[in-house]
Design a protein that fits this description.
Elements lengths: L2 H13 L3 E11 L2 H7 L9 E2 L3 H11 L4 H4 L4 E9 L9 E4 L9 E7 L4 E7 L7 E3 L9 E7 L11 E3 L13 E10 L1
C-alpha cells in the first residue's frame, strides 16, 4: 500500500508526532450515481467535529486495544487527512470554523449510532461571532489536515468544527466532488 505510508510521512513531518497510526478511510461523492456505483458516502453537510474526549479514548481502545492504556497516558491526537480524488473540488467543499471564535456553550456532544458501534460527535450551535473559511478549488495534490481531537488541555485548539457546504460560486454544471478522508492517531 502506497497511500498510508505517504500519510504517515506527511503527518510526522507536519506535526512532529513520534508515531502515526492510520485507522480509517472514507470516500465521499456529491453524486447519487457515484455513491451507488462506487460505495461512497455523501459529503456531510452537518456542522460537526468527529470526536469528543470520550469517543476519542473509546476509538483508541478499539483500534489499539493492547496499547491504549499506555498511549492515552501521553498526549495523542486524531487528525483527518482530506483530499480530492478526482480533479479540482468544484462542489461541496469543506468549510472550517476558526476555533478561537467558539464560545463556551457553542458545542454540544451528540451520541451517534453507527452500524457497528456507538460513538459521540460534537455539533455546534449557531453563533454570529463564528468565523468560517475554506479552501476553494482544492486539487488532488493538496490536502487539508483537520484536527478532530487533541488530548492536550493546555490552551491549544483541541478540535475543528467543519462541514461540507453548497458553494454559491460553484458552476451549475460543475463535476461532483469526490474525496477521501483518512483518519489517523498521532502520538507525541
Amino acid at each position: 500500500d502506497i497511500y498510508e505510508p505517504e500519510i504517515n510521512r506527511l503527518l510526522r513531518a507536519v506535526t512532529g508526532a513520534r508515531r502515526v497510526h492510520v485507522f480509517d478511510h472514507t470516500r465521499r461523492a456529491a453524486s447519487d450515481n457515484l455513491r451507488r456505483n462506487r460505495t461512497m458516502r455523501e459529503p456531510s453537510s452537518v456542522i460537526h467535529n468527529d470526536y469528543t474526549s470520550w469517543s476519542a479514548e473509546k476509538r483508541l481502545a478499539e483500534m489499539l486495544p493492547h496499547e491504549a492504556a499506555s498511549l492515552s497516558a501521553q498526549r495523542f491526537a486524531i487528525v483527518n487527512v482530506w483530499r480530492s480524488i478526482a480533479g479540482t473540488v468544484e462542489t461541496m467543499p469543506l468549510a472550517f470554523c476558526d476555533s478561537t471564535t467558539l464560545a463556551d456553550g457553542d458545542i454540544v456532544e451528540v451520541t451517534r449510532q453507527a452500524r457497528d458501534r456507538t460513538g459521540q460527535i460534537q455539533m455546534a450551535y449557531y453563533n454570529p461571532a463564528h468565523r468560517w473559511g475554506y479552501f476553494p478549488h482544492m486539487t488532488p495534490d493538496e490536502v487539508a489536515l483537520i484536527k478532530t481531537y487533541d488530548s492536550a488541555v493546555d490552551g491549544r485548539n483541541r478540535f475543528t468544527i467543519h462541514t461540507a457546504f453548497a458553494d454559491p460560486a460553484s458552476a451549475p454544471d460543475a463535476p461532483p466532488r469526490q474525496s477521501i478522508e483518512s483518519r489517523a492517531f498521532l502520538f507525541f
